[in-house]
Design brief:
heterodimer, A: about 110 residues, alpha+beta, Arc Repressor Mutant, subunit A, three-stranded antiparallel β-sheet, 6 helices, about 10% strand, B: about 160 residues, Alpha-D-Glucose-1,6-Bisphosphate, Chain A, domain 4, seven-stranded antiparallel β-sheet, globular
Chain lengths: ~110, ~160
């Protein structure tokens, strides 16, 4: 099925939310803006690994990054998350997959009858 | 704020055949890929045994209109974390088969939000656990933690 731009955006949001570390970063940011190093702290990960996670969240429009001198700060972008509603996107993916299964199943029972 | 999704596809099968595979336990279990219990009469139960965590998804048939429409509620979660949505499956004969429109509605109903501040992120997680069958220790260990995080996140998002 052809994907439109909003589907692609939802895919990005859903992908971003599918990872536990990224969800924890969002949870941390929900308390207020934070520097990249303070976001990295609880995760025992290298800075590049955390930056990669932040990149995914930024691509999905879930967070925003600002440079403040030499310090990089992140904050949440709640509007986008609410609008994107990854939960419904998840259901859409689920039903599309079920339709694929149903298609295959119908072929199979037709062959057997 | 109620939200819904609709998916449309043409299947190379008759409406009679599609109605049959949507209303019989044996067929449903086969193509859903999980055990499905179904008592196809209005008010009868339909139960999808997805993963162990979060329990099954269950509902009741609201409408059974042979070869045209099947409607059932879809309740996920348990106890105080329950959310009921509704699935409508509509069949329409076409030249090359049957158009199946699936409408899943009732997401983010005001009612469910008044009752449960936790919101859709929690439901999403529950759903992910239900759908990914097979229990996983890591998942189980992290669920309580992620849930409490998500409640915080969601509250701030919805404000």
């Amino acid at each position: 099925m052809k994907k439109d731009a909003s589907d692609e955006r939802l895919d990005r949001v859903f992908f971003a939310l599918s990872d536990r570390t990224r969800r924890q970063i969002l949870a941390q940011l929900a308390h207020g803006e934070a520097t990249v190093s303070s976001l990295a702290e609880p995760h025992q990960m290298s800075l590049p690994a955390i930056l990669k996670h932040l990149g995914v969240l930024r691509e999905a429009g879930l967070i925003k990054e600002e440079k403040d001198g030499r310090v990089r700060r992140c904050r949440i972008d709640p509007k986008e998350l609410e609008r994107a509603n990854a939960w419904i996107a998840h259901y859409r993916i689920f039903w599309e997959a079920q339709f694929d299964r149903l298609e295959k199943y119908l072929d199979k029972i037709d062959d057997n009858s | 704020m109620s939200m819904s999704l609709t998916i449309d596809r043409i299947f190379k099968a008759s409406p009679e055949r599609l109605y049959e595979v949507w209303t019989t336990e044996r067929h449903l279990s086969q193509w859903f890929g999980v055990k499905v219990e179904a008592d196809p009469k209005v008010g009868g139960t339909i139960r999808f045994h997805f993963g162990e965590e979060g329990g099954p998804i269950q509902g009741k048939f609201l409408n059974l209109d042979p070869y045209e429409q099947i409607a059932f509620t879809w309740t996920q979660g348990c106890d105080d974390l329950k959310l009921e949505t509704t699935v409508y499956v509509t069949l329409k004969r076409e030249a090359d088969g049957t158009r199946l429109s699936l409408r899943h509605e009732g997401f983010l109903d005001q009612k469910s939000f008044d009752e449960h501040d936790e919101g859709w992120l929690v439901y999403m997680e529950l759903w992910a656990l239900q759908i990914n069958s097979g229990p996983s220790d890591t998942k189980r260990a992290s669920i309580a933690e992620t849930f409490s995080n998500k409640i915080e996140v969601t509250k701030s998002f919805l404000n």
